[in-house]
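Complex 719.
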Amino acid sequence: MSDDAGVDSDITSVPVLSDIPTPTEATTTDTDVDPATAPSDVNGCVVWHRKHLRTADHRALADAVADADIICPLFVFDPTFYDNDGLACDARIRFLHEAVDSLNQLYENSPTQSITHQASASHDYLAEETPVEPQQIQSITGEYQISADSDSGSDSTSNTPLNTNNSESDTIQSSPRASEYSSGLTVGYGDPVDILSHFVDRGWSILTMETPTSRYGKRRDTRAQSVCGDALRFISGDGLIRDAEWSRANWKSHITEWLAAEQHTPEWSGDTTQLTIPTGITPSVVEKTHKINPTKKMVPTGTHRAATTQLRAFVDQIGSYPSNISAPQDARTGTSGLSPYFNFGLLSIRQVHQYVNNNTPECRGRRMFTSRLIWNCHYNQKLADWAGWTDRAVNPAFEEFNADRHNPALVDAWKHGQTGFPMVDASMRCLRETGWLNFRMRAMCVSIFTHILQQPWWIGADWFHHHLIDSDVGINYTQWQSQAGLIGKPSQRVYNPRKQVRDHDSDGEWITKWVPELSDLPAQHFPRPERTPLAVQSECNVIIGDDYPRPVVDFDARRETFWSRYERRRPEAARELARPEIAKRASFSGGYDAAQAIAQRYAVDESDDEADNIQLSFSEITTIDTDSDSTGENTPAINELNDTTYTVPDSSMTLQESVISIPTGTGDYAGEPSPDDREAVSNAVDLSTTDKTGDSSNDNINTDRSTETDEQTTIEGFM
Ligand SMILES: Cc1cc2nc3c(=O)[nH]c(=O)nc-3n(C[C@H](O)[C@H](O)[C@H](O)COP(=O)(O)OP(=O)(O)OC[C@H]3O[C@@H](n4cnc5c(N)ncnc54)[C@H](O)[C@@H]3O)c2cc1C
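Predicted structure with flavin-adenine dinucleotide bound:
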């Protein structure tokens, strides 16, 4: 690891958080006072940071500062998120670690009285010869120090919200990574529930921001609540509706008001006291222990300074945002690039919403951008409404869709950018190498995976989740299900990667950046390299089938198969949406009414023998395409000739075997055994051993539903 020079210890040789002082002990500075007889009504509050790694617009922190006598900001490194148990690539872990370092600096600079509880026994611990398991808790004796002058003159504005008048007020200086946190964050390592319960046992209460979560995170939060009881409070401070029978009643006006409302700003005063318990655990130590070694390139830096710099640079070019959104090479610098900062909460959606509204002229770019900030909330609301998005199809009619078609070779071709569709391959390689793609390319890759390769959606969603630096469970999985068509909306689109080349990379700049083996092929052949005349292939020395794969499936035939299979399930899907339980899960912005409208229109009576044969016309499908782009771009793809040659990878597995081996999407089998960047980047699959038997799953239904639209644009369009 390049940036941990000088850090000799790892987690097997430093103390973990233990021997926590009671709030009274922590505030008893007079050495003559016996802590045992000191007043016991000191109100101490731990602010447990998980994802909201900031100090501005942070409701839990603001409440703690307002109500407690002493606060203890805490972050816990949970080993579950590392090694083979974890689902994040090393680059995302590094981003998180940078953010924790940066948060520590914010707290070091907060205008508070700072108390340090010294872990004085750490050196004994270091002297131990036997390696100690990370979970082992060491008992240490503490001594307390108060630095009277620590009301932080150095950067007293560092905890203010983003200044909406565009002055330099909120950034912190980045500095070398700390070897120990001594006056900022308290950092633990281990099961967060254990550590929280130690604090509770010592008389602390705990506040944390509620975060939509699923799988392990959901179980952890439930466990923490049951172990800590009333001492732990999850606070909703992100604008999402919780604990309501129908979260979507008046959701739009609620979220609009919330975004405009005053931020949750901690009202620091000279009286605020902040406790830090140095534990020797820092991101550098964790990285060393878990051998974190990111290989991705072009990854943003996870600091608050970088976040605000990025925001300000984007605001200067917001006018050109609409024209930069679709083409992947333009989007790389033309969209905000803020998604990882939102995901880990270095900036809140509301901070950015207000900053942009206050610092840019009213224009289309501003409207489009701020509506996307609402999409962030919209998709996260879906996960808050139903935690099952990561594991099950939201509409039961599509449960296990494509499971019987699982073909590991096709999955590998997609993951490693070897499908023979240049736009898809460039995107998948870019994802693996940089951890980012623009919306359109993400959606296209989902469509190819689920509609054309016809593979189980959760494998692809987990792959995205692993590689995306910005992977937000609340958006990634809900978007996957939405793009795959598992909600049962009448609007469904299948992206045509050839059209994407013509529309967004006609000169091949993007494709050749990520698929360099096509560099010498004339650009007019990029939509369909396999159709390049043999003479041209020889002349430019790019032989399709040798240097670059032929399409692994027949796109047009697969598209027809998809529509046919999909429409057979649609009436049932519509009927499911009539059930309140399913409508709640789907969490349409229009609430139950929207779900019922679909049900009434598309749920054909089950007793109708013809029901399964009904196919809607193209115009019917697009009539209530609530996700369509404001440009009205709902254009059928250009009518293209059928493929004459195509290949299907040879899977030596029988169907039965491959179904049994489908990764479950959770736990150890989550999509992939949590591949590390190092393997992922170097591990391009070899598809040279393909057979040429054709696609046996072609049902030959003759329909034309090759819709090509952009994403939804207005909040009214949410579904
Ligand atoms: C299959 C799929 C998976 C996705 N997974 C994620 C994810 O894990 N995390 C994530 O932040 N975005 C995700 N998106 C949405 C979108 O692609 C990214 O938000 C965007 O590309 C991030 O770049 P940006 O910050 O420059 O976006 P900008 O265009 O600058 O948008 C600003 C912000 O608005 C929000 N936003 C933009 N588009 C969307 C959208 N379609 N849905 C919800 N919020 C949106 C994001 O918070 C984004 O940072 C996904 C989209 C698809 C199709």
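The chain has three domains: 11-29+41-289, 304-387, 388-630+662-686.
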